[in-house]
Design goal:
The structure holds two protein chains of two kinds. Chain A is an alpha/beta fold. Helices cover 20% and strands 28% of the residues of chain A. In chain A, helix 1 links the parallel strand 1 and strand 2. Chain A is elongated, with a radius of gyration of 18 Å. Chain B is an alpha/beta fold. Classes of the chains: A alpha/beta, B alpha/beta. At the A-B interface, loops of A face loops of B.
């Protein structure tokens, strides 16, 4: 349910190389690898020699993105089995990075949000991070009532995985929590839950 | 900004502190406290010089939390349109002036991990209050302060005794160059850069920072640009139904104010965007001197920043 009035809803402008960056830190997840490969057509000479690529295959496992990303010949390349393990490595990379480093993120919204949260904690302005959404539209949602997070939400309303309330998924987004907001849908008339719509497949 | 929000002040101190630089301290006429501000803020001083009214912005230099007085420093500029000369020659201890409430278009970004301050000459003034705030909030900073000569450099000994090793000075006549490339290289992630000084220096720092891969979001600048002069022309104010002359050394905003029309403004230097005005028609070419409008909007001929921009032609019709 796209509500144009909600300004916290992130906007992803698409990957584009910063020709001046001394170092590029590129984090990709799943189909986000294809966005990195597409950007490679537009990168200036020597771009990937100044780049570190962190990749987590998730749903794209078996598609061979690992070899294609390695073929870009980045200064270093790592792949990770899960999003949390890639975020752990990203934290380390950010802790030693200096100004002149540009961060790029491509993948699903929960992945972009997790990377963005680390970037903000490392002192990066979120507006300077270059992002592209690829793959599923699934969301990470926080229940505003019990504060529990539910991962991989594809429909609204959905049942909170913690407290069991039926939650309407809003476009309200928290960069600090890296999650959208879920609000009880039947508070006024308990039990009257509107039909489930698969909005975020 | 209407006159009614301005504050009446008296000059309690006027002191020469470097070649062509004077410091003024203002207190309110009725003894009431002045508003608190934040580091980097400025005030607009209204000067009545005979029939002529000038309004110039000056950075507030004192402690942001000290409402007992405000301090500004004024450089006498060679190509002065008269404002800085008026402050130097006519404003003395006991003089009364009107000043605007503080406006901050050059604030500290509190998300920054470190703050790199680069000042050229009189561009030191916004950093005086900024450094007091950064110190109080225990945020790491460095000041790099360039001047033509030691005699022209304001507040150097004060800054060195207050901030010690965090202050670095460079003097042109001693062939000391501000080591910009080195400063931009290897700063910790989350460093924010702030530059204030002559236009050429600001351009150099902004360009160098971008070429060193700094995101625009981490680079902040403030210019105090006097409105450029040019050939006289007339302005027709469509809503006020008036046609007025803009003289060679006058800005459109000043001419509009002199005609008794209240136009919005904040910085009076082509930076903030507050005075953006729609152009209804123009007999001539718009001469954009601002740093606010994007190039496509400048080219569209539909908008003008009346504090610094003018026309090369005979008449322009504005939606005012």
């Amino acid at each position: 349910m796209l509500s144009p009035g909600i300004i916290s809803r992130p906007v992803y402008k698409g990957l584009a190389p910063d020709a001046h960056a001394k170092h590029n830190l590129i984090a990709a997840e799943g189909e986000g690898a294809a966005a990195v490969l597409d950007m490679a057509a537009k990168t200036p000479e020597g771009f990937f020699a100044r780049s570190v690529i962190l990749f987590c295959a998730t749903g794209s496992a078996g598609k061979g993105y690992e070899d294609k990303l390695k073929a870009l010949a980045p200064a270093s390349y790592w792949d990770f089995p899960t999003i949390p393990t890639s975020i752990f490595r990203l934290k380390g990379a950010l802790s030693t990075a200096s100004m002149g480093t540009r961060l790029y993120v491509a993948g699903t919204e929960p992945f972009i949000a997790s990377v963005m949260k680390e970037a903000i904690e490392a002192g990066i302005d979120y507006k300077s991070v270059i992002t592209e959404h690829r793959g599923s539209a699934k969301r990470r949602v926080q229940c505003v009532h019990c504060k529990g997070f539910t991962e991989n939400v594809t429909a609204s309303p959905f049942v909170c995985s913690h407290c069991g309330l039926s939650l309407f998924v809003r476009d309200h987004f928290s960069r600090r929590l890296a999650a959208f907001q879920g609000v009880c849908v039947d508070a006024e008339a308990p039990g009257e839950v509107p039909p489930v719509e698969e909005l975020y497949k | 900004m209407t006159m009614s929000t301005d504050i009446a002040v008296r000059v309690s101190e006027a002191e020469t502190i470097a070649q062509d630089v004077k410091r003024f301290r203002f207190v309110t006429l009725d003894g009431s406290p002045l508003p608190e501000f934040s580091g980097g803020a400025h005030t607009v001083v209204t000067m009545h010089d005979g029939d002529r009214v000038r309004r110039n912005p000056y950075s507030l230099m004192g402690s942001p939390s000290d409402g007992s007085s405000y301090q500004i420093s004024v450089l006498r500029t060679v190509d002065s349109r008269g404002g800085s000369a008026f402050m130097h020659d006519k404003v003395k201890t006991g003089s009364e002036l009107m000043i605007s409430r503080p406006v901050n278009l050059f604030p500290v970004d509190r998300r920054g991990r470190k703050h790199l301050l680069i000042a050229g000459g009189i561009g030191i003034t916004p950093f005086m209050s900024m450094m007091l705030q950064l110190t109080r909030e225990e945020r790491p900073f460095e000041l790099h302060y360039a001047n033509r000569t030691a005699g022209r450099a304001a507040y150097v000994s004060h800054l060195q005794s207050a901030y010690g090793h965090r202050v670095h000075t460079y003097f042109d006549d001693k062939q000391q160059m501000l080591p910009l490339a080195r400063l931009l290289d290897g700063q910790p992630l989350g460093t924010h850069l702030y530059v204030c000084g002559p236009s050429g220096m600001i351009d150099w720092v902004l360009k160098s920072a971008r070429e060193a891969g700094w995101p625009d979001e981490n680079v902040h600048s403030e210019r105090f640009q006097a409105p450029p002069s040019g050939k006289p022309f007339t302005v027709t104010l469509a809503r006020s139904k008036k046609t007025i002359e803009v003289a060679e050394y006058q800005s459109v905003l000043e001419a509009v104010e002199a005609a008794g029309v209240d136009a919005p403004y904040l910085c009076r230097g082509g930076a903030c965007g507050q005075c953006e005005t729609a152009v209804l028609s123009c007999e001539g070419t718009l001469k954009h001197n601002d740093h606010y409008l994007p190039d496509d909007e400048k080219a569209s001929g539909k908008k003008i920043m009346i504090c610094v921009s003018r026309i090369d032609g005979t008449n322009v019709v504005l939606d005012l």
